[in-house]
Amino acid sequence: MKQGGFLMLLREILGVIFFPTATWQRLANQPVQAIKSRLLSILIMAAVPPLSFYYGTTYWGWEAGDRIVKITPDSAIPLMVLFYLALVSAVVVIGLMAHWMSKTYNADSYPIKGIVLVGYSCMPIFVAAFFALRPIWWLDIILATLACCYAIRLIYMGVPAIMNVPEDRGMLYASALFAVALVYAVVILVATVILWEYVALPVFVDG
Questions:
Q1: What is the DSSP letter of 164?
Q2: Other C-beta atoms within 10 Å of 189: how many?
Q3: Cα(23)–Cα(125) distance, rounded to whole angstroms?
Q4: Number of folded domains in the chain?
Q5: Half-sphere exposure of residue 152, counting CA atoms within 13 Å on the CB side?
Q6: Tens digit of each residue's pLDDT (9 = 90 or more) over 115-149
Q7: DSSP line for 134-159
Q8: How do residues 166-186 score in pLDDT, each as one tens digit?
Q9: What range does the domain containing 10 cover?
Q10: What is the C-alpha separation between 116 and 183, in angstroms, rounded?
């Protein structure tokens, strides 16, 4: 990514977190090609959580009583890849559902617009994952919870602007999208348990 592209990405990440109303409106006014170009930003930022957790759990580890526990690098790689695929698939699936529901709410949408809406709403989650570089589980859980709550708020703020619907209709639209996200979260949790047990079993070692 060129320096100008990196600066634009950084500006939009900070904008959607600290100035969401103005940022959503600015994105809503972008042409189709410009919206499509945001997909790369989402793919890059979605790599932050798995990379952070990989580094944190294999290099630093975490406290478990009076010892430090780590995951071996080799066994952590499949987990990292699956984590990344889960994040990207969540953004894509929920984003496509946002587009699919657009006809119901007379929204101005196309598939990639829905994906960008969901992907940019997840930016607080991606950014909060930087704290996983040095795992402190109680802090990570608190930050992840706050980031998820703020991501939900961003969805409610972003839908009216990005999808070009009135506020009252946007509220119903965002609520339906939130319900889809909850269902998909349950699916991911079930898949995680199965994969953790039978496919990508981590190997723990003392630090």
A1: T
A2: 10
A3: 17
A4: 1
A5: 12
A6: 999 999 999 999 999 999 999 989 999 999 999 99
A7: S--HHHHHHHHHHHHHHHHHHHHHHH
A8: 999 999 999 999 999 999 988
A9: 3-206
A10: 20
